[in-house]
Specification:
single chain, alpha+beta, eight-stranded antiparallel sheet, 3 helices, 8 strands, 20% helix
Length: 158
């Protein structure tokens, strides 16, 4: 990372950023260019292991790509705020972000309810009981995070 002063190396601080985010972008391997998907997600931690859960319809191009190569990269960001100093002609952006990579796989039916619950709980302060009738036509995926880095750019407090 070029700007070490912005790097976040503490895993718990990266998880705090991830909890604030509402979209995770996945990059899958396509033949000529990466294929990027913005997805809703949920986070589960178990000791040192971090798992990201996603869902989608039961068909689509992402599953073809996943069948060929399950190595993916992910990115999520939040707390965007433009910071302008008009008198100096200076403009920058505040943000927090986490990027990483891992292996993506389809969640077996036996784990699907848990995966979807992790996802819905990410977006609700209190547990949300969703209608289970959508579960059979929903595919849940999980990304086992192999490594990640965080970055933060916030204006220095005066």
């Amino acid at each position: 990372m070029r700007r070490n002063d912005r790097e976040i190396t503490d895993k718990n601080k990266m998880l705090q950023i991830m909890e604030k985010c509402d979209v995770c972008r996945l990059a899958l391997h396509d033949e000529e260019y990466p294929y990027i998907l913005p997805l809703n997600f949920g986070i589960k931690t178990d000791g040192e292991e971090i798992t990201l859960y996603f869902h989608g319809a039961d068909e689509g191009y992402k599953y073809e790509l996943l069948a060929r190569d399950n190595r993916v990269s992910f990115e999520m960001d939040c707390r965007h705020r433009i910071v302008s100093a008009r008198e100096k002609g200076h403009c920058t952006m505040e943000y927090e972000s986490v990027i990483g990579c891992g292996r993506l796989e389809i969640v077996p039916d036996s784990e699907k309810m848990e995966a979807l619950t992790v996802m819905t709980d990410h977006y609700h302060k209190e547990h949300f009981s969703f209608n289970p009738s959508a579960v059979p036509r929903t595919v849940a995926m999980k990304l086992t995070v192999e490594n990640m880095t965080g970055k933060r750019r916030m204006k220095k407090q005066q």
